[in-house]
Structure formats: C-alpha cells, structure tokens
Amino acid sequence: MSAGRAREDTLTGSQLALLLCGCAVNTGTFAVYPYLAVLLRDRLGVGMAEVGVVLGAATLVQFAGAPFTAAFAERVGLARALLLATFVYCLGAVTYLGGAGIPGLTVLALFLSCGAGALYAPAYRGCLTHSATAAQRPRLVAAGNAASNLGIACGPVVGALFLHEPNRLFAGTTVLYAVLAVGHFFLRPERSFSDEPGAGPGAEPFWRVLRGLAVLPFVVTVLTHYLYMQFYQYLSVFSQGRLPTAAYGVIMMGYSLGLAVLQPLVAHRVGRIRYPLAMSVGFACMALGMAAFAGGRPATIAVGVAAMSVGTAVLFLKNDLQALAGSARSATVTFGQQRLAAGVGSLLSGVLGGTVYGLFERADVLPGFWLTVAAQCALVPPLVLAVRRASRRR
Predict the structure, then answer these.
(1) 256/180 same-domain check
(2) Domain check: are 165 and 228 in the same one?
(3) Measured distance CA(231)–CA(243) in Å, rounded
(4) Where are its TM segments located (predicted)?
C-alpha cells in the first residue's frame, strides 16, 4: 500500500472520537425509540391512533427540519452545533425522567429529542467529511454510517433491559448524554471542521436551504427510504405468529450489525462504481429481500433481512456520495437535504405502504404485499433512469 493511500485510510484522533460519539448517541436514542409507542400510550392514556399522530409529528420535525438545522450548524460552527445537540438530548432525557406523571412533559421530551437529532445528524456527518477529498469520502461516510448503525443495533438491547423500569432507563440516558456533552466540550476538532461561525461555504438565508440540491440522489433517496421503511415498519407485524419475538429481535439486530460491517468493507468499491450500477445492485438486493419475506418462515425472513442489509448498505452509501458530488452546497447542508429526502420517503411509506398493507391484510393474502413491494424495487432503477434520459433530451 502506498504512503498516500495509507494516509487516506487513516482516521484522525478527532474523527475516531466523533465516531465513538455517534455510536453512543444512537445507543441512547434507540434504547428509547423502539418502545416509545408503549411509553406514550401508558403515560398519555390514549389509543394507538393518537400515539401515531404524536410520533408522526415528531418524526416530521426531525426529518423536515434537517435542512434548516444543517444551515444553522454552518453558521454557529459544527463543533458548537454538536455540543448544543448533546445538551438538548440531555435535556430531553431529564424531561422524560420528570414526566412520569405529567403527559405534557413526555410529549415535550419527545420533541426535544427529535430536535436534537435533527441538529446532531447533519453536523456529525459534516464534521467527518467537511475537508475530505473525493477519495476519502467513501471511507468516512461509510465509517460514520457504521458507527451509527452499531448504536442502532445496541440501543434496543439496552432498552429491553429496562423496559419495565423506564425511570432507570431515562436516568441512564441522562448520564450518557451528560458525559457526551462534556466530551464534545473538550473535543478539539481540526480547523477544517469549520468550528468558526459562518465558516462553511454557501451560508445563505434559511429560506434557500434547498438551493443547490442534487436532484437525482435526492429522488433516489426518497424512493430508497419509501421502500426500506416498509420493511422496517411492517415486517414486525407480519412476523407475529410466524417466528418468536426474540428471534425477530436477533434478526433485526443482525441487520444493523450487517450494515455496520458491510459499508466500510465496500466503501471504496461503491465510491468508484457508477450510480446506475449501484442502483441496480442495491434495488435488486432489496427486491430479493422483499420477495423472500413472502415465504413467511423464519429461514426466508432471515434470508430476506440479509439481502436487505446488502442492498441498503450499497444504496445508503452511494446516495450520500452522489449527493456530495452533485451538490453545490457544503457537506453539512447536503446531509441535511438528504435527511429531508429520507423523511419524505418515510412519510410516503407510512401513508401509501400502510394503506396497501391494510388491503392485503383484509384480503388475507399478506405475502402478496411483499411481492408487490419487491416489484416496485425491481422497477425503480429503469424508471428513474428513463425519466432522467427524457429530462435531459428536453
């Protein structure tokens, strides 16, 4: 290996510290997130329909607000934005802890946590990639995603230990976020991390946060998350009665761990291949995974989740790399725009996917739902590329 390649593959101390923080933040977040529906139902004393409205509004705040929080992070400095986000995370955990008998505080805590996530995610990825060369970006984006996915995998396991003692859970997350806030305070990022207010390129009025949008990766990210969230949201319901709850938990943990391992391994190759090829490989794997779910047996569900892990590992990484390459804005704002795309896709999944799932459920042919989603996965690459060619001719 050449000395130049070795330097490209070497993470700095600050980058390693950021990766550790990204993993810890998601561990704390996903120790709570999978159990929010139960928590809100118990504390608010309402039905699941009302709980769904609250969760949907909070998710909308988190994703739709990302371009604005990314632009805000550009202005105040990325390190300051990370410190502020961890402080808000800590405040949200304290509010959860104190809101056991006060429903309004529980809802406030949820929105504080979502607001913190909206600020932390683009600033975190912006810090990792702000000064990176085109050759360094695949490794850094993959490393950031891997650290996040490791936290997503570990968080539910931690939360399950305290599922029936939420006060102990929130006390633990309060301590975790307090430690992270102190750690971010003492973290000394390189100057290239844009710690000076307004140092980031493209600092413009907030109403122009979508200026310079890389349209194709934005659209493909919307479609990726529209299809991916149908797997993430509806497989748990489909699996009830088909495999034990513990087995489902292990399989889903394996999915997140698969992402954490696969993305760094394929980062350079995914960075080099053309976007149409990455789309074809990624959506083909997703189609295979969705079709495998239709089998409804533990073995087919496990195979489907493994295929989804490969497909989303390629697509999540390549979509972000293509957005960074095609955007006229800074890395931080670009990641905010990509997070908005993920939110739009998740919203479509909830509205359209839920309706279609209900239709197949009432007809008692639920395997047909997964075959329908698989067909959509197979159709996305040729349709998107055909529309792109037609728009270029016009």
Answers:
(1) no
(2) no
(3) 16
(4) 16-38, 44-65, 77-96, 102-121, 142-163, 169-187, 208-228, 248-266, 273-293, 299-319, 340-360, 366-387
Identity of the amino acid at 300: T
Q: How many CA atoms lie within 13 A of 352 on its CB side?
A: 14
Q: How confident is the model at residue 71 (pLDDT cuts 50, 70, 90)?
A: confident
Residue type for position 259: L
Q: What is the pLDDT of residues 187-226, one digit of tens each?
A: 755 444 444 444 444 455 656 667 778 889 999 999 999 9
Mean pLDDT of 130-153: 83
Last residue of a domain, one of 156, 176, 200: 200
Longest dimension (CA), the chain: 63
**138 touches 262 (CB < 8 A):** no
One-character DSSP codes across 205-233: -GGGTTTT--HHHHHHHHHHHHHHHHHHH
Local confidence band at 301 (pLDDT 50, 70, 90 cut-offs):
very high
Taking only the tens place, the pLDDT of each residue in 330-365 is 788 888 888 889 888 888 887 788 788 888 888 989
Q: DSSP class of residue 10?
A: P
Q: Which two tokens stand for residue 291?
A: 């079709």
Task: With beta carbons less than 8 A apart as the criterion, state whether 25 and 82 touch.
Answer: no
Whether residue 58 is contained in a domain is answered as yes
Whole-angstrom distance, CA of residue 198 vs CA of residue 237: 46
Bigger pLDDT: 242 or 207? 242
Q: Do 126 and 335 contact (CB within 8 A), yes or no?
A: yes
Q: Provide the number of structural domains found in the chain.
A: 2
pLDDT value for 40: 80
- Both 364 and 219 in one domain: the answer is yes
SS3 18: helix
Q: Closest by alpha carbon to 380, among 286, 313, 304? A: 286
Q: For residue 121, what are its two tokens?
A: 């995610």
Is there a contact between 55 and 181 (Cβ–Cβ < 8 Å)?
no
State pTM to two decimals: 0.78
Instruction: With H, G, I as helix, E, B as strand and everything else as coil, classify residue 120.
Output: helix
Is 32 in contact with 169 (CB distance < 8 Å)? yes
In CATH, what number is assigned to the domain containing residue 71? 1.20.1250.20
